[in-house]
């Protein structure tokens, strides 16, 4: 078994951990082990965010937008000098 030291934990987090450990009848160390085991045993998403969002809301349906024909070539955006500070 390995040892892991975690520093700079906020007081609120430590208090919540202490209360959760007491509620489950275990030490704070065992509570942390259980939390890590639970979180890290969940399957990792095999798809990207866009695919997951699409799957979640697919049942609602979508909006069919017409594809517009492009009449001119795409060009780079021109941001000009708007918002640029002179001191940069």
Describe this structure in words.
This protein is mainly α. The chain has a domain of 46 residues. The protein has 3 helices and no strands. α1 crosses α2. The N and C termini lie far apart (53 Å).
Descriptive terms for the model:
3 helices; 88 residues; mainly alpha
Task: Write a concise synopsis of the structure shown.
The chain is mostly helical and 88 residues long. Helix 1 packs across helix 2.
User: How many distinct beta strands?
Assistant: 0
- Indicate the overall shape: elongated
Order of helices and strands: HHH
> For the CA atoms, what is the radius of gyration?
26 Å
Termini Cα gap: 53 Å
Uncertain runs are: none
Which whole number gives the mean pLDDT?
A: 87
Level of helix content?
A: 40-55%
Helix-strand category: mainly alpha
Strand content: under 5%
**DSSP helix count?**
3
Largest sheet: none
């Amino acid at each position: 078994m390995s040892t892991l030291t975690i520093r700079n934990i906020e007081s609120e987090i430590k208090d919540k951990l202490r209360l959760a450990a007491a509620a489950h009848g275990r030490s704070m160390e065992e509570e942390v082990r259980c939390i890590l085991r639970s979180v890290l045993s969940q399957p990792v998403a095999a798809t990207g965010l866009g695919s997951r969002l699409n799957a979640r809301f697919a049942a609602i349906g979508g909006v069919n937008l017409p594809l517009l024909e492009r009449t001119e070539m795409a060009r780079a955006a021109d941001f000009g000098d708007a918002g640029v500070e002179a001191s940069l």
